[in-house]
């Protein structure tokens, strides 16, 4: 997200539009305009501005993870706190196809990684290559997701 998005003022119309497109980004500008009581050109301009500012990062399709393999939540703990090791790990996670999210966190773990694999064996292979081979990592723990109780991509606005 660019710096403009952090300082961008959102009014009530922007917030209403963002709630609608987070629920269904395939809604037409005309449909959104009717729902928020603005003109279609005004909605289009606002959406363009929100995308340009980085508030809306992408328009994507959300897939059902449970139908496509197994989701794993991995906590990573480093041996020593080193900015270089953190940067290298973060850069490597950005290139890993099976990683859908990687968070640098406070607390007992240093990173939390959300990974997805076709099977537990595929995850094990990846973990050996991407995690266990990293000498900076002291430990990793994995939680296998059995079912999803709640998963939302929407951010309250």
UniProtKB/TrEMBL annotation:
InterPro entries reported in the protein's UniProt record: ArsR-like_HTH (IPR011991), AsnC-type_HTH_dom (IPR000485), Dimeric_a/b-barrel (IPR011008), Tscrpt_reg_AsnC-like (IPR019888), Tscrpt_reg_AsnC/Lrp_C (IPR019887), WH-like_DNA-bd_sf (IPR036388), WH_DNA-bd_sf (IPR036390)
For this protein, the record's Pfam families field holds: AsnC_trans_reg, HTH_24
Entry keyword Coiled coil: no
Domain (HTH asnC-type) spans 10-71
Q: Which Gene3D superfamilies match?
A: 3.30.70.920, Winged helix-like DNA-binding domain superfamily/Winged helix DNA-binding domain
Which UniProt key words apply to this protein?
Answer: DNA-binding, Transcription, Transcription regulation
Q: What is this protein called?
A: Lrp/AsnC family transcriptional regulator
- Which species expresses this protein natively? Hyphobacterium vulgare
